[in-house]
Inverse folding.
């Protein structure tokens, strides 16, 4: 149970900014519902897309955990449409130092959620947009 009563800052909503992401989000919701129905026994139809053979669960968990901080999700949101400089990230996130931003960027870079766009600017990795939209649409409450 979430006992946090503070008002959340602007949360990432990439699906609202692009029709393709909205469609992907809808498909993710439908897939999530199918998974829920299968796991809870409401529907015994196997889900062929759930083939985990060959997957490293540790690598997958690390990859997803890189997104596990609100600042990192905000960085993904801010860099989704255009490259953003570290200085602009500091200002837009209300952070005190560039060091704090670089700490979060390093994690996102290590797991390829963002990429260097040159001149101390970063952007969301285009190859990861679908994965991020899928993750956010599934966990959206």
């Amino acid at each position: 149970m979430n006992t946090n009563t503070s008002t959340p800052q602007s949360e990432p909503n990439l699906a609202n900014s692009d029709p393709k992401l909205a469609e992907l989000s809808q498909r993710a919701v439908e897939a999530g519902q199918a998974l829920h129905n299968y796991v809870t026994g409401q529907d015994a139809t196997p889900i062929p897309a759930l083939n985990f053979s060959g997957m490293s669960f540790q690598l997958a968990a690390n990859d997803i955990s890189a997104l596990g901080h609100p600042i990192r999700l905000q960085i993904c949101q801010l860099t989704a449409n255009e490259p953003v400089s570290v200085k602009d990230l500091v200002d837009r996130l209300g952070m005190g130092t560039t060091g704090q931003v670089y700490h979060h960027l390093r994690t996102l870079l290590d797991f390829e959620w963002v990429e260097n766009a040159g001149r101390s600017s970063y952007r969301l990795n285009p190859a990861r947009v679908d994965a991020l939209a899928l993750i956010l649409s599934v966990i959206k409450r």
In short: Residues 1-12 have pLDDT under 50 and may be disordered.
